[in-house]
Design the sequence.
């Protein structure tokens, strides 16, 4: 299990760099601080110009304030945090991220309760089912989706992950961005 991390990004980062860090997180499995290190003010300005000005994705700009990174908590925990809508939230997208067994959340109270074997076996079954169904689900979507233009293979994979995420949702360690403004 990955170590839980809750931290702020460095204060010397420009707000635009912080906002782009959190925007890129949706499609990247990397931790927030690693994404931030790969960005420059110039790259961030270009991203803002394209996505906020060009496409009107104002949710990216919401993170240009103070942002708190919360990593390796359960998806259930992210839902509890997000329920208090006093802030802006963005979480790693289950549509773009493939769930893997190394990101399974194992609550300490379950591990110490004598139920660890049952929990682990159940999660293993759910994760195996998720992995086994990804390709058949993608093939089903490709075969049964009617569009004038053929859907790109990556696009059908996105739909397959979106439809199957519920299988392993609660046991998966998630990453979340929270902006308090």
Sequence:
């Amino acid at each position: 299990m990955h170590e839980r991390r809750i931290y702020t990004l460095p204060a010397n980062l420009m707000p635009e760099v912080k906002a782009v860090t959190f925007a890129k997180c949706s499609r990247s499995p990397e931790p927030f601080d690693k994404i931030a290190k790969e960005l420059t003010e110039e790259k961030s300005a270009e991203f803002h110009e394209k996505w906020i000005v060009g496409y009107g994705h104002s949710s990216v700009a919401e993170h240009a304030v103070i942002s708190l990174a919360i990593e390796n908590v359960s998806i259930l925990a992210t839902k509890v945090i997000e329920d208090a809508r006093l802030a802006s939230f963005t979480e790693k997208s289950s549509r773009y991220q493939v769930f893997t067994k190394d990101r399974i959340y194992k609550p300490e109270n379950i591990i110490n309760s004598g139920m660890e074997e049952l929990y682990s076996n159940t999660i293993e079954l759910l994760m195996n089912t998720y992995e086994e169904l990804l390709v058949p689900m993608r093939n089903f979507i490709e075969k049964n989706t009617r569009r004038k233009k053929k859907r790109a293979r990556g696009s059908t994979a996105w739909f397959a992950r979106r439809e199957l995420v519920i299988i392993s949702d609660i046991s998966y360690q998630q990453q979340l961005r929270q902006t308090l403004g």
